[in-house]
Amino acid sequence: MRVLVTGGAGFLGSHLADRLIAEGHEVIVLDNLLTGRLKNLEGALSTGACEFIKGDVTQFISIDGPLDFVLHFASPASPVDYLIHSIHTLKVGALGTHNALGLAKVKGAGFLLASTSEVYGDPLIHPQPEDYWGNVNPIGPRGVYDEAKRYAEAITTAYHRVHDLKARIVRIFNTYGPRMRMNDGRVVPNFILQALRNEPLTVYGDGSQTRSFCYVDDLVEGIYRLMQAEHFEPVNLGNPLEMTILEFAERVLLATGSHEKIVRKELPVDDPKVRQPDIGKAKRLLGWEPVVDLDEGLAKTIGYFRGEIEL
Ligand code: UDP
Fold first, then answer.
1. What pLDDT does 78 receive?
2. 235 and 246 fall within a common domain
3. Disulfide-capable partner of 146 in 45, 107, 118, 129 (CB 3.0 to 4.6 Å)?
């Protein structure tokens, strides 16, 4: 296949590009490098099976030649990034998704939207199954990302209904691994870097809020399977192992061998209190479930961040 990955220089996009190339496909990456980095594509570009185009999906997209699939992964994805780039985050979800869909339609290509557990907002149903509609504050600080992704799901589904586009929607829960940006502000890079730099770990609020962390290789496997499934409705992918942020801080201290303290910082507005994917659908449909345990995933991620600090 010839596959376009928007946002392909980012954390998830670049891992997907690597996987597609390893499976024998040709990849075109379109990225404006706002939160992505060319360094993430070093391996992919060195194979000769990957082409990089610097461009912004909110502008008209033109790609020469045939395309079999468009994987739409462009978007700031960390709460810190989408607060800084709030209007652009809305534009990427709305205009960018519209452009990427239009391209897939004209090329007769399949389309996979990277959606998010944030469509469930601060959930009132736990764990979250795909048929839960969510609890989102449209005008809160996170609304720029949540509503952009909800709109992106709506327009992707409309293209499927109206134009018979081969659509896929993956709702991605917290995922971690090498190539997360050091200063993206999310809990995984923050805690690991703080531990490695002998600084206290910053737990927001009382740390009782929960998250469930999926290692990137598991997520990529799920997405690759979903591309090949004939299923047009959203599918959750994530690791159901749920823990409080305080427990997660302790796991990071243990994994890094750090004896640092934990300090409390203010809880961000609308920070979801709980989050855990119901992955029953992915299990049934894709025969998928995560296989990398947290200690193994953390060890690989810590190794990556050690290397980044030394650079
Ligand atoms: N968090 C924290 N300390 C940090 C960064 C994040 O306690 O230095 C918390 C944050 O308040 C949230 C959770 O960790 O409850 C996950 O935050 P992240 O930014 O990784 O993404 P989210 O899951 O909220 O989208």
1. 96
2. no
3. 118
158 and 206, same structural domain? no
Q: Is the pLDDT of residue 248 over 80?
A: yes
Question: What lines the ligand 1 site, CB under 6 Å?
Answer: 78-79, 174, 186-187, 190, 202-204, 209, 211, 245, 268, 271
297 backbone dihedrals φ, ψ, rounded to 5°: -65, -40
From the candidates 82, 120, 145, 176, give the one annotated as an active-site residue.
Answer: 145
- Rounded to 5°, angle at Cα 216 from 210 and 221: 120
Q: 24 CB contacts (<8 Å, ≥6 apart)?
A: none
pLDDT tens, 180-190? 999 999 999 99
The CATH number that applies at residue 197 is 3.90.25.10
Average pLDDT over residues 207-235: 98
Sign of the CA dihedral 94, 96, 102, 104? negative
Residue 310's pLDDT is 85
Average of pLDDT values for 122-145?
98
State the pLDDT at residue 246: 98
User: Is 203 within 8 Å of 263 (Cβ atoms)?
Assistant: yes
Q: Which domain holds residue 112?
A: 2-176+215-239+280-286
Three-state SS at 150: helix
Residues 44 and 56 in one domain: yes
Q: What predicted TM-score, i.e. pTM, was given to this entire model?
A: 0.98
- Residue 172 domain-assigned (yes or no): yes
Residue nearest to atom 18 of ligand 1 (CA): 186
Q: In this structure, what CATH number is given to the domain that contains residue 85?
A: 3.40.50.720
Taking a C-beta distance cutoff of 8 angstroms, is the pair 232, 272 a contact? Answer: no
CA distances from 292 to 22, 216, 219, 223, 247 (A): 20, 9, 10, 16, 19
Give yes or no: residues 143 and 195 share one domain: no
Question: Domain count of the chain?
Answer: 2
- Which residues neighbour 263 within 8 Å (Cβ) at sequence distance 6 or greater? 200, 201, 202, 203
